[in-house]
Amino acid sequence: MKTVMARSTLLYMGFSHTDRYFNEIRSEIMTLKIAAESGTQVADTPETTSSLPDQPKAMPLSHAVVADRPPPVKDFFAHHEGVHLFSWEPERHGYGVMDRYLECVFRC
């Protein structure tokens, strides 16, 4: 899983990002990628995640398609998790939006 996360840009569909083990791996990969981009060494400790930059990267580590996430949550995920959220309001647009996102992904 670490190899795939380190070498690929992932697309999460309806994923809640609440799995602690998975989040730990994602955080580790994000820290290593940031260190590689800046040319610095990073110790393999949990403290390294607290020194992440405040600005999001031009290319996120992953994308997520999830319903009903407000702009502050989207900004948090972009800046601190390396995840770009594609979101919509289900009460306005329903849940067929997920299908339309999948159609676009398959066409690309």
Q: What is the number of strand segments?
A: 3
Write down the overall mean pLDDT. Answer: 79
User: What radius of gyration results from the CA coordinates?
Assistant: 15 Å
Question: Can you count the helices?
Answer: 5
Strand content: 5-15%
Low-confidence stretches: 44-57
Order of helices and strands: HEHEHEHH
The shape, in one word, is: globular
Fraction of helical residues: 40-55%
Strand order, biggest sheet?
A: 1-2-3
Secondary structure category? mainly alpha
* Largest sheet composition: 3 strands, parallel
Distance between the termini: 24 Å
Please tag this protein with its features.
single chain; 108 residues; mainly alpha; three-stranded parallel sheet; 5 helices; 47% helix; globular
Fold and architecture overview:
With 108 residues, the protein is mostly helical. Helices cover 47% and strands 11% of the residues. The chain contains five helices and three strands, in the order H-E-H-E-H-E-H-H. A three-stranded parallel sheet has the order 1-2-3.
